């Protein structure tokens, strides 16, 4: 196993990637994050990478001072992230940065012919066609880290074309509740995920079911499957990570304990499967497995994402993602209510429908326009 670069090394996926890398003695060429100086310094001293990147300029200056007694080079900004993504020593790049900021580094990794182990679903949501084209053009390998897409990837391997993808969802902390019951839920309520320990943004996305909408769009691009052939199943136990139905009616599913270290490790070692630190699934003690239809009337983010997934050739999915990032951030600052998140996203999507997405510059422009419109919507809703 060759060296890796970890983009988003201080977040939930990033820190678990570090754990897997250490358990398997995989050397780390670069670590990169936003502005978590303490954690970046700790990782740099632990992993001895060639490069450490803080996206925030002030954080990078402080990190450089702290690491002056080491041979680790420090870089900053988007240029630093892209350098870490294309570092010659790294064979695999783990894209674990949250949000659209991960798009350009992901493209840089693909253009350098790297294996891209991506947990940053926004990359494919915002610019799926551009990303898949870059992978094809440069012969780069895309391996999903999301547990659901890793499951689908494993189910498809060697089994021929799929008739349907069965994308599972835990249902989040508010499964079974109606809109009236969600009017006054708090940030603390939304962050109580029943099964997974994740970052704040993705946990809120799980609560709104926007996360499953983003994953539906991601699966559409990654597996070349139209949205109408992707069925979302609410599976509260999070044991079946997803499944694939084949033309003969057979369904193959991938099961495992709810532990992100397993799909992370698989993306780093594929096609090899080796012992690692992830929890093992004990079927004797596993709960009964149940499946439900998602409540699209209460959790409107999922049907919205499904609708926009069919808008090929436009930046509509990018607009949705940017508006959601802004709205979730405002909710986490206690500036808007839980139900306002999707309200903001719907308003921004309606206002900016049909923007072009033929080039990277189009996508970045749509992202910026959506963020400005979302901020205006949020300002009108602030408590």
Précis, in short:
By secondary structure, the chain is of the alpha/beta class. The chain has helices at 12-23, 37-47, 57-66, 77-86, 103-111, 122-138, 147-156, 179-182, 187-190, 200-208, 210-222, 261-269, 301-309, 316-332, 338-351, 360-381; strands at 3-7, 28-33, 51-54, 73-76, 90-95, 115-118, 141-144, 164-169, 230-234, 240-245, 251-255.
Write the layout of secondary structure elements.
Elements: E1 3-7, H1 12-23, E2 28-33, H2 37-47, E3 51-54, H3 57-66, E4 73-76, H4 77-86, E5 90-95, H5 103-111, E6 115-118, H6 122-138, E7 141-144, H7 147-156, E8 164-169, H8 179-182, H9 187-190, H10 200-208, H11 210-222, E9 230-234, E10 240-245, E11 251-255, H12 261-269, H13 301-309, H14 316-332, H15 338-351, H16 360-381
Parallel strand pairs: 1-2, 1-5, 2-3, 3-4, 5-6, 6-7, 8-9
Antiparallel strand pairs: 8-10, 10-11
Short key terms for the protein model shown above:
four-stranded mixed sheet; 3 domains; 383 residues; single chain; alpha/beta; Rna Polymerase Sigma Factor, Chain: A; Rossmann fold; 11 strands; 14% strand
Secondary-structure class: alpha/beta
Number of helices: 16
Oligomeric state of the chains? single chain
Rg from C-alpha positions? 20 Å
Biggest beta sheet summary: 7 strands, parallel
Which descriptor suits the 3D outline? globular
Quote the distance from N terminus to C terminus: 51 Å
Low-confidence stretches: none
Question: Helices and strands, in N-to-C order?
Answer: EHEHEHEHEHEHEHEHHHHEEEHHHHH
Number of domains: 3
